[in-house]
Automatic annotation (TrEMBL):
Keywords: Hydrolase. GO terms for molecular function: hydrolase activity. InterPro entries: AB_hydrolase_1, AB_hydrolase_fold. This is Alpha/beta hydrolase.
Amino acid sequence: MNVYFLSGLGADERAFSFLQLDFCTPVFIPWIKPEDEEETLPSYAGRIGALIKEPAPVIVGLSFGGMLATEIASVNPSAKAILISSAKHHKEIPFYLRMWRKFPLYKFVPAKFAKAVSKPLCRLFMNARSRKEMLVLNNLLNDADVDFNLWAVDAVLNWKNNIVPPNVTHIHGTGDKLLPYSYVKADYTIEGGTHLMIMNNAKEISGLLRSLIRS
């Protein structure tokens, strides 16, 4: 059974490398370039969704990928979207992050400086707990496309979704610093799970995915 995976902001399939996915055939959807710097998250999600040819796909979205999966699920009731460490409603993004849409200073930050600053911030919010996790995280940060990330940050901050499709299931950790648990309504809770629980709690999440996808 094919299961389609959308990774987090600036990441790729390596973000899922700690999971045990022997119960499915994982298909990792690559990022495509935004049409322009003004493209909205729903518009981009529509183009990503067009890459998935199955009429009733199962989509696992991590963080930013979960927001895209929500938009895909909203226009395709036959899809099954599973969100991990993500948000499915604009109010699940903390107000202190959303406020930056009124002061979009990040748009004027030079790419080299943005990349240098993003690394320590990501390490602070991601909570890598082992040497292997840190190695994967560092490689993802080093390979990140800064221009894509800056566009995506703007798209997320200006995301206005206020409808949660019934075909969305949300898994979230109580220790998430980037998207705090108190802001979201999770269907499944990972106690102590951080924003990087896809790695930290890989065994638990693998078992949960297996159960949700098979059902």
